[in-house]
Amino acid sequence: MTHSEMFKQGMRRLAAGVSIVTTIEDGQPHGFAATSVTSVSADPAPLLLVCVSKTVSCHDTIVRTGKFCVNVLRETDIETARLFSSSEHRHRRFELCDWKTLATGAPVLTNALANFDCSVQHAMEVQSHTVFFGKVEEIALLGEDVHPLLYVNGQFDGLRSVFPTVAHG
């Protein structure tokens, strides 16, 4: 196994939350499933980052528009994650879910655990990806019941099945 293949296998063991990152250009919504979203700071203004492969269909759209929304998925959103993970049904992605907009106008998934509507403050190209630093312009939260969708070992799963006794507390 090559060093790169071992790296990929090792990273599959790192559980990560799943989000749908969206943007819009000329009235056309774009989005993809992401596991590489991280908070950067809360003060003086909330800032997060998302790592986007240059091969992702909406990479260049984020570059041009300077905006994106991170929509944190619930563990029941496995089909939404699959839909946004495959290019096969790209044309149907925004037809099968309910959407609204916040400050930037990027699509906001109405039933997501959290929505972070961002304007790009800085973009840094690193090898095959661009790291977009987004200033959080507006935040929406869904209820108090927090059961996020996870991605681990090449599949989507929830905390209730990974840690059944902890998730009920």
What does this structure look like?
- The protein has 169 residues and is an alpha+beta fold.
- The protein has one domain (3-167): Electron Transport, Fmn-binding Protein, Chain A (Pnp Oxidase, Chain A).
- The chain has five helices and twelve strands.
- It has helices at 3-11, 59-65, 78-85, 159-162, 164-167, and strands at 16-17, 19-25, 28-34, 37-41, 47-53, 67-72, 99-101, 107-109, 114-126, 129-141, 149-152, 155-158.
- It has a seven-stranded antiparallel sheet with strand order 3-2-6-9-10-5-4. Strands 1-11-12 form a three-stranded antiparallel sheet. A two-stranded antiparallel sheet has the order 7-8.
- The longest helix is centred in the first third of the chain and has 9 residues, at 3-11.
- It is globular.
Give a brief outline of the structure.
With 169 residues, this protein is of the alpha+beta class. The chain contains 5 helices and 12 strands.
Main sheet makeup? 7 strands, antiparallel
Q: What name does CATH use for the topology?
A: Pnp Oxidase, Chain A
Low-confidence stretches: none
CATH superfamily: Electron Transport, Fmn-binding Protein, Chain A
Strand content: 35-45%
Shape: globular
CATH class group? Mainly Beta
Radius of gyration: 16 Å
Question: DSSP helix count?
Answer: 5
Using the 3D structure, state the CATH architecture: Roll
Largest sheet strand order: 3-2-6-9-10-5-4
Helix and strand run: HEEEEEHEHEEEEEEHH
Report the span from N to C terminus. Answer: 41 Å
The tally of domains stands at: 1
**Helicity range:** 10-25%
The total count of strands amounts to 12
